[in-house]
Design brief:
The complex is a heterodimer. Chain A is an all-alpha fold. Chain A contains ten helices and no strands. The radius of gyration of chain A is 22 Å and the shape is elongated. Classes of the chains: A mainly alpha, B alpha/beta.
């Protein structure tokens, strides 16, 4: 069973690699056909530029700066989402009160939030607020759905045996809500990176990835633009994978008896 | 310890009566068996006594402040936890070694560390029974506890259950008179007649 699954996974990875190679070829051919680097840079030039940027301290500081703020916004949004979902599950009035606010956050364009936030606050921590706002409704909705979907038979069992609330949360709710939370995190992580970088591009806080992207636009430095975009994709994926692995370990530790 | 008294209990779902004017006394510290065909309200009665359903009318005394434990018709185990952890979930003071020893007595040695999702139906049933027996309780509700067990295992588990239930008030729902006898039931209530006969006292 294990070997069949492993073989399937390996095959899927091969297909992915093959597809990536085809698209890289398409990109290379397209850039050769256009023949103007500032319109479409060749993939190998992006790799070279990335190598050059990697040798500078500024490159790593920018990544750390953006990672700290966007990651921080994500963690704050996730914590607030869990807390508010737990409150809403317990008190109907809280859910009713939060429903319009969550709907507003979900439907208002992120650009409106960014501009409003720039009017109200400085641009320095803008990406924290924006990624927080993007993450909050996703985690809130998913966790609330998970709590509502918790097995009523297990909850009845807990009631009859008078299992204290903390133990109920630790051993019953955690496992029931986890799949919902995990899928919420996967969506929210992608969202917070996209919106966080967008906020940095508009707000241009010093030393952020967004600032570098904006500078690349101003100076028509297309290799820089592509190189920084590749960095965003890699950092976002690494953050997502790292977070989900840490979450899994944390849950194992919490559920250990 | 006072007995559990149920007086003139009525319960209906969507206008369909399930319990009608049911009265009974369950002596303290003894095993009482409830027998009836399916759909005559045995589980509903247990759910009301466990506080999981509210009766439409009637009175229950003798349960206030008493610790309860139960074997439900379903196993109701946490699939993410192993067998021993499921037992210790309801018995915070129980050490893992004690849980393992108890598991050995019902033929569950060696599977304590396995997540319950990997256990067979019969094994899960034994874990659910042991959980109820090891939980600190004054009153035990057993809703068809031995279903799904093979004859040999059933004998072992029934013997273990009887021993561990000594001194507790036990309400056993069963379809088998032999099970009731093996558990040492002091009374066997045929619920079909009671539910259908208004005002009758057991």
């Amino acid at each position: 069973m294990r070997s069949i699954t492993a073989a399937k996974r390996k095959r899927r990875r091969h297909i992915r690699l093959w597809a990536v190679l085809v698209w890289l070829c398409v990109w290379q051919i397209a850039s050769l056909c256009i023949g103007k680097e500032f319109l479409l840079v060749a993939p190998w030039r992006v790799v070279v530029r990335l190598w050059e940027l990697g040798g500078t301290g500024d490159f790593w500081i920018s990544i750390a700066w953006s990672l700290l703020r966007i990651g921080g916004g994500f963690l704050l949004g996730a914590a607030a989402g869990i807390f508010l979902a737990a409150l809403s599950a317990r008190f109907r009035r809280v859910e009713e009160l939060l429903a319009p606010a969550m709907l507003a956050i979900k439907t208002i364009p992120v650009a409106s939030f960014i501009i409003l936030a720039l009017i109200w606050f400085s641009s320095r921590n803008l990406s924290v607020l924006i990624s927080f706002l993007m993450v909050l409704p996703v985690i809130y909705t998913n966790v609330l759905g998970g709590i509502r979907a918790a097995d009523p038979q297990l909850l009845e069992m807990a009631r009859v045996f008078r299992i204290p609330p903390l133990r109920r949360f630790r051993y019953i709710y955690t496992a029931q809500v986890l799949p919902f939370f995990r899928s919420g995190c996967t969506i929210a992580l992608g969202l917070c990176w996209k919106s966080g970088i967008a906020a940095e591009v508009i707000g241009m806080p010093d030393g952020s990835i967004g600032e570098k992207l904006q500078q690349a636009k101003i100076y028509l430095a297309t290799p820089d633009l592509f190189a920084w975009t590749a960095v965003i994709v890699c950092v976002s994926l690494a953050f997502e994978k790292g977070f989900l692995v840490l979450l899994g370990r944390l849950i194992q530790r919490v559920e250990r008896m | 310890m006072e007995p559990i008294r149920v007086e003139h209990l009525c319960k209906s779902f969507d206008g369909k009566p399930v319990l009608r004017d049911f009265s009974a006394v369950f002596p303290a510290g003894k095993v009482s068996a409830l027998m009836a065909p399916s759909g005559f309200g045995k589980t509903t009665l247990l759910r009301i006594l466990m506080g999981l359903e509210l009766p439409d009318s009637g009175k229950i005394t003798g349960l206030f402040g008493k610790k309860q434990s139960a074997v439900f018709q379903e196993d109701r185990l946490c699939r993410n936890l192993d067998a021993a952890a499921n037992i210790r979930l309801v018995c915070p003071g129980l050490r893992r070694e004690e849980a393992l020893r108890a598991m050995e007595s019902v033929g569950l040695a060696g599977c304590a560390g396995q997540p319950v999702r990997e256990l067979s139906g019969g094994m899960c049933r034994r874990v659910a029974i042991l959980r109820a027996l090891l939980a600190e309780s004054d009153v035990l509700f057993l809703d068809e506890p031995f279903k799904g067990l093979d004859a040999e295992t059933k004998q072992t588990v029934m013997q273990d259950t009887k021993t561990r239930c000594a001194g507790k008030t036990v309400l056993l729902v069963t379809h088998s008179r032999e099970e009731a006898q093996a558990m040492g039931a002091v009374q066997v209530l045929a619920m079909a007649k009671l539910a259908a006969a208004p005002g009758r006292q057991a």
